[in-house]
């Protein structure tokens, strides 16, 4: 029997019944994914459950200072002892199972924890809440349901998840619910100044170089409402950068007066373009991403499109411009 709920009760039961869990998240993890994984690992272990975190892609440099971040295993493959030595998979902020980057996860029951509205409830137990500002907030409630007091380190990781997914509490999901959870996390020992320093003052040199490469391509179209930036294979090579060095770049053009949407085209391998979309105002970039096989949130979404970079740029830019009621 499968269950789906915005309440953490069933998730707490499923977690407590496990012996050893495998935690993973979406490819190119962000603060919400990493912070939530680390917090769940502590919750599991305080409940007598062994936990292993395996992600497909590297932890961004500005998140490697998080407490326990060195326990995250980065691999192209699942562990050699999977599935035999595990009895539960926990997917964190992973709206489609394919976005984990791993094949074979469905060999075991899945506890699916996510706040994306397009999550199809692929788990045996689905703890899904699209009204939550971040999965980190959902994990905070999971601690309360289990009755386990998080350590200051876990509180800090959950605060990181919450603050990064709300854009330091600047996005529309920075609701009263978000601030209440943040206050409770701080009371439990979270350190906001430390988190801000880690997240914003620990960028890799490669990410700064790639930022420069990307901003050189800045185009403002659609009567000043749409910003487009690109990092092609040559840009990645010149910057000596990888996928983990792209996380914050898309947010820079969004600060330009009059810009309502940003599209960041990233190509680090031939004929495959990763696209990040950001918005402020009324445009729903999730719908645009979904039309290209992706997903996300109304103000932050992404997709992957195969094809020549210039053709993909033209096609996706036109779709976003149309959503804005204009043209490129």
TrEMBL record:
Q: Which residues form the signal peptide?
A: none
Q: What is this protein called?
A: Bifunctional oligoribonuclease/PAP phosphatase NrnA
* DDH domain sequence ranges: 20-159
Task: Report the superkingdom from the record.
Answer: Bacteria
Span of domain DHHA1: 240-319
The GO terms describing molecular function are: nucleic acid binding
The record's section on Pfam families has: DHH (PF01368), DHHA1 (PF02272)
